[in-house]
Structures are given as structure tokens and as C-alpha cells.
Structure to design on (163 residues):
């Protein structure tokens, strides 16, 4: 989770919750995610396809006492990776005067350029990107990559997290 610090009020935070259900026979993993104001997950397919997994309707956790959260689902196949990240990455300041945000499109393009990397390789590439962005990153950042092995011999998804 990432604490929402607008106005210094610690009662709200963003969060994302997921359930991964591996199928040992097919090597595929069913994913169900619900978000509370968190950026959408990225799905990187083993064949190089990359897209966001929108998690609609997720309000900041703590804003409403009876908030509802709608799950988003997908299935990961062998070689696929699911990437979770905080908005410290997409809201990093770029450009000569740090007047632009890095943004979702730039992140999608960056990740697509590293499709085929292992979860560890994806986190290492993104950690390198954060170092390049340097002082433009003025919010906390967290990364979590979950991958399905290319060979279905292991039913447990591989994970790696960073910064």
C-alpha cells in the first residue's frame, strides 16, 4: 500500500489486493485484483504483448465507510508477468525543467521494450529507470513483479520486488 499524504491526513491510503490461483495442470494462473485508488496493474505477455489491467471503481481506502471494490480478472500463461507499481513511478517529474510527468504511456512503452524479461529482470530494469529519473522521483515507489514460469513444471508463480 501507499499512504495518501495529501494534506498530511493519514486516514486514507491506496491499496491493491489480489488472489493468484495456479492451475498445476496447465501452468496458467488465474488473477483477481481489486484496487483502492492504486494504479492499474500491467500485464506483460510472454509473446511481447503488454497492456494495463484496469481496476475500475476503486476509491482511496478510508474515504467512504461503505466503499465497494470491483475485482478485475485475467489469466497469466507461461512466460507472462504481472507488474504492480505505485504512482511514485508514473508521477516522476521529467524534462529539462521537471515540468512533465513520466506517465502511464511512457511506462507501458518502457515495459514493452523489456517484454520477455523475468520478473527479476523487469524489476531490475525499472529500478534502473528510477535511478535515471533521479530527483524527479519525489514520492515513494514500490514494484512487485509476479511471473509464471515458461515451463509449467512449477505451479507457484515467481515473484520479485524492489525499491
Amino acid at each position: 500500500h501507499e499512504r495518501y499524504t495529501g494534506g498530511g491526513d493519514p486516514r486514507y491510503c491506496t491499496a491493491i489486493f489480489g488472489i493468484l490461483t495456479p492451475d498445476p495442470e496447465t501452468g496458467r494462473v488465474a488473477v483477481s485484483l481489486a484496487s483502492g485508488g492504486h494504479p492499474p496493474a500491467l500485464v506483460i505477455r510472454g509473446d511481447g504483448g503488454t497492456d494495463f489491467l484496469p481496476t475500475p471503481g476503486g476509491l482511496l481506502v478510508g474515504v467512504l465507510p461503505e466503499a465497494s471494490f470491483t475485482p478485475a480478472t485475467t489469466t497469466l500463461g507461461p512466460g507472462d508477468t504481472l507488474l504492480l507499481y505505485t504512482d511514485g513511478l508514473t508521477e516522476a517529474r521529467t524534462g529539462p525543467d521537471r515540468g512533465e510527468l513520466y506517465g502511464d504511456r511512457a511506462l507501458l512503452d518502457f515495459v514493452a521494450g523489456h517484454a520477455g524479461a523475468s520478473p527479476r529482470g523487469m524489476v531490475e530494469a525499472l529500478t534502473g529507470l528510477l535511478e535515471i529519473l533521479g530527483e524527479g522521483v519525489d514520492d515513494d515507489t514500490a514494484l512487485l513483479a509476479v511471473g509464471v514460469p515458461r515451463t509449467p513444471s512449477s505451479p507457484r508463480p515467481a515473484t520479485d520486488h524492489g525499491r
About this structure: The mean pLDDT is 85.
